[in-house]
Automatic annotation (TrEMBL):
Residues 412-590 form the Reverse transcriptase Ty1/copia-type domain. This is Reverse transcriptase Ty1/copia-type domain-containing protein. It holds the Pfam family RVT_2.
Length: 638
């Protein structure tokens, strides 16, 4: 069911697995068969006799790849890898008809209760299948006693308890308050879960589960305006968990402050200052007695103490106090001017810092493609345009031209992009342009987008292991790293002037374009898959330290290591360059633009994670040193 289309208006035509993970599921293995369709299969790895059965689905995580669940005549599902669909023409032949009839008769004896003979004689039941309160252990009886009291157990007590088959640890969402998106604009509105939906026999609809993603129980929710809708429990769980912190406290988004009030605890203006021993005065720092009426994004409202509002929304409260001319009240006077001054200072710093960064190393930095072309015209060269062409040539693999009506493609969102320009000091002031997607303008996908990198503590530990085992250490950078991974988000764009002759076309983003929220995670997953295919496995202590057993020429066993910090690869092995060459078959390393412009760069590291790294010999022993001074002496960007 997780790869079956969902007709909920919130699914936007996507299947449940894609809604939860953000990844379009692969359904190729489902296309050759129909659920519960007739199939021929062979057991024993395809060497057995041809049998007939019913196709039940794909058996993931069971046996080799491309294996399927099949229901044989025994009535017990099995996983096999040699399966062939019985065509309609074959089903019309007498021999196949007889096989299907025999299969139906055999399976009916197993799964059809009406055709099964049940002997209720106690003496005929095997001892291991008997249930006796006196013979059960204490743990079982405690759990059993939570559900059924054996002393009061009578005939008929199990009538109408089909729900007992459900997961008893499943969450009940009745009476919970939650924010749900409603309407065409997806506006967040407050709602309350009123009741579980039941069928005509009073049984809850669908199946409960302690795994919230699998809990499909149906609930009716009521909005503040009295309207009601029906949601599955997993949808409620998804919204609920997105609106609370790790302690379960609800995140509240403020719409506006509509009113204020104070009570007897609020101090008067005459008591707003206190006399100091030195003879001076100081404003009293208190917010006692004041409350603000807050309207929230979900439509609810509440009176909140000034103390809490000051901590959560200091600037909004300060602006409200100034608008209502109450900033001279003692509860506001001691902190509102400070907030406004701080706001103005931040704005001035941001503006000055941005506009002062018009040049780098004396070279004017453009802010757009149009300005880059204008600078080249003024300078009589094409340095910036060449940088743009090189970047877009490398990025072109991320896009696929779409010639149809993009609005008819379900689930895709339009995004935009922009160019970031820079000057590389260490590469003869080379002009650099990087194309970035405007991921900050899109919603975060439902899947987790967090991407791990190697821990800083792992580096000296592994360098010590390399020195003790006499291992070589090599490093390299993966070129256009994100573009090697498939895009996990569904998005498209209308091309701009940086695309040259292709400006104005509709492109679907097929690769993990830099700037997308899931780009780092997509690349990390792609790199992990490559390393696993090479025989490496991730360390339990640090998931970005990869290990592989190896043997030295003298027969000594050891481990090869690879450390990954996004696109920076550090390898430790007896033949580190050979290992890096294996990785280069899948990923392209950055070239040495100065000394060897035609070859990619694999070398011993001189720095890693900002710290200087150097190999030394002390008392005849090779060792690696890490210097923090290199990182500390680096000038911060101006």
């Amino acid at each position: 069911m997780n790869v079956t289309v969902n007709y909920s208006k919130y699914s936007d035509g996507r299947v449940p697995l894609e809604i939860i993970t953000g990844i379009t599921p692969e359904i190729t293995e489902y296309l050759d068969f129909t659920i519960y369709g007739w199939v021929f299969f062979r057991s024993d790895g395809g060497l057995g006799v041809n049998h007939i059965g019913r196709w039940l689905g794909v058996s993931h995580r069971v046996g080799p790849m491309m294996t399927y669940w099949v229901l044989p005549k025994s009535g017990i599902p099995i996983s096999v890898d040699t399966v062939q669909m019985v065509t309609n023409a074959e089903q019309q032949t007498d021999s196949v008809k007889q096989q299907m009839q025999r299969w139906t008769a055999d399976v009916s004896k197993t799964v059809d209760a009406k055709s099964t003979y049940i002997n209720w004689g106690k003496e005929d039941i095997p001892h291991q299948m008997m249930f006796d309160f006196d013979d059960e252990d204490d743990k079982f009886m405690r759990n059993f006693g939570m559900l059924i009291n054996p002393e009061t157990l009578e005939d008929g007590d199990f009538e109408g308890t089909e729900e007992a088959a459900d997961d008893l640890d499943a969450q009940d969402y009745t009476n919970m308050e939650i924010g749900l998106r409603r309407g065409a604009e997806g506006e967040l509105q407050r709602a309350k879960v009123k009741r579980r939906i039941v069928d005509e026999n009073g049984r809850p609809i669908d199946v409960a589960s302690s795994n919230q993603l699998l809990n499909t129980r149906q609930y009716e929710v009521e909005y503040a305006d009295g309207g009601t809708e029906i949601f599955a429990a997993n949808i409620l769980a998804e919204n609920l968990l997105a609106q609370v912190d790790e302690h379960g406290h609800k995140h509240r988004l403020m719409e506006e402050i509509s009113d204020h009030r104070k009570n007897a605890k609020a101090i008067t203006k005459s008591a707003g200052s206190m006399l100091l021993p030195s003879g001076g005065t100081r404003k009293r720092q208190t917010t006692a007695g004041w409350e603000l009426h807050v309207i929230l994004k979900d439509g609810s409202s509440n009176w909140v103490t000034l103390k809490d509002m000051k901590e959560s929304f200091p600037l909004e409260v300060a602006d409200y106090a100034k608008l209502k001319a109450i900033e001279d009240e003692p509860a506001f006077a001691w902190w509102v001017p400070h907030v406004h001054k701080k706001r103005d200072r931040f704005i001035s710093k941001v503006k000055s810092k941005y506009w002062e960064r018009t040049h780098k190393y004396g070279i004017r930095i453009p802010k757009s493609v149009k300005e880059a072309i204008q600078i080249d015209r003024e300078n009589g060269d094409t340095l910036w345009q060449d940088a743009i062409k090189m970047e877009m040539k490398n990025n072109r693999v991320a896009f696929e031209e779409f010639g149809g009506d993009i609005k008819k493609v379900i689930g895709y969102k339009r995004i935009t992009g922009h160019m970031v320009f820079d000057v590389k000091l260490g590469e003869n002031f080379r002009r650099k342009a990087q194309y970035c997607a405007d991921g900050h303008k899109t919603e975060a996908p439902a899947a987790l987008t967090y991407n791990t990198v190697v821990a800083r503590d792992s580096v000296p530990i592994l360098l010590t292991i390399a020195a003790l085992n006499g291992l070589d250490v090599q490093c390299a950078d993966i070129q256009n790293a994100f573009l090697t991974a498939p895009n996990l988000e569904k998005c498209y764009m209308i091309t701009g002037p940086e695309f040259g002759d292709e400006e104005g076309k509709t492109f679907i983003v097929r690769r993990a374009l830099y700037g997308l929220k899931s780009a780092a995670l997509a690349f990390r997953s792609h790199l992990a898959e490559t390393l696993e295919n090479l025989g490496f496995y991730s360390s339990y202590a640090d998931p970005d330290v990869w290990m592989r057993a190896a043997i030295k020429p003298d027969g000594e066993e050891y481990y090869e290591y690879i450390l990954c910090y996004v696109d920076d690869i550090l390898c430790m092995s007896e033949n580190a360059k050979d290992v890096m060459e294996q990785i280069s078959y899948k990923f392209k390393f950055k070239k040495d633009k100065i000394e060897q412009p035609e070859s990619y760069k694999i070398e011993q590291p001189e720095s890693y994670l900002g710290a200087g790294v150097k190999r030394k010999v002390l008392d005849g022993q090779h060792m690696w040193t890490i210097r923090g001074g290199t990182y500390q002496r680096k000038p911060s960007p101006q």
